[in-house]
Predict the 3D structure of the following.
Amino acid sequence: MRVSREFTFSGAHRLPEYRGKCERLHGHTWRLRVTVRAPVQPHGIAFDFAELDRVVGERVLSALDHSDLNALMPDPSAERIAQWVWRALAGLPLEEVRVWESERCFVAYRGEGDDA
């Protein structure tokens, strides 16, 4: 069973190696979806939404929300943020991390080997 929870956070970034408006400092209200995969347990729940909320809050949102993302990672594109989140959530049965920088633009990351 796949269990997903969505979050939002505000963060500023710039992409110094990119030629265009994104090379200047700007901000987004980012949307994040974390999906885990686990079997349904005898009590009927595969992965507790409250636990997913707690772990993402502690390991991800506490660092990313209202922050300068360039201080946390190099060239913080949506792609790099998705990879950073994946590493921050090591130990969870992750299936996919999605990061939206706008309503219509997102990336999906499924772990090492999904960089191509």
The CA atoms of residues 4 and 55 lie 13 Å apart.
